[in-house]
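Tokens in:
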């Protein structure tokens, strides 16, 4: 898998020194510690048999990790390449990502809005999120 990722968008993968800078600046990691770019890259580099590439779909593609990486590994590209491998393989795009895409087309929001959230916003004097 490592070689395949290096051929398909992540040529600098082997430069990773596991410093953790990518994870330290990751906006997704701040919200969900199960997404850890450094650990995902480590499992790919050491060739672990079971790599959870599904985690690559959590990447927001903000690019902070790529900007901060001292070795030019381009962690965001690693995640995008991992997604590509899954789409080309038998896994495809996770259903929840497809649902989010349809939700964006229909409402402008990635996830369905909850009535409780709208009531809470109203009680705080925040504007309605209607489009």
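Residues out:
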């Amino acid at each position: 898998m490592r070689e395949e990722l290096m051929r398909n968008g992540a040529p600098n993968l082997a430069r990773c020194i596991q410093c953790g800078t990518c994870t330290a600046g990751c906006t997704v990691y701040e919200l969900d510690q199960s997404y850890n770019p450094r650990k995902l890259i480590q499992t790919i580099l050491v060739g672990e048999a079971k790599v959870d590439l599904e985690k690559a779909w959590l990447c927001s593609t903000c690019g902070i990790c790529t900007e901060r990486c001292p070795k030019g590994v381009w962690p965001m590209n690693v995640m995008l390449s991992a997604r590509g491998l899954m789409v080309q393989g038998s896994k495809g795009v996770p259903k929840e990502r497809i649902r989010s895409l349809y939700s964006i087309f229909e409402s402008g929001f990635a996830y369905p809005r909850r009535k409780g959230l709208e009531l809470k916003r109203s009680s705080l004097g925040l504007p309605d999120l209607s489009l």
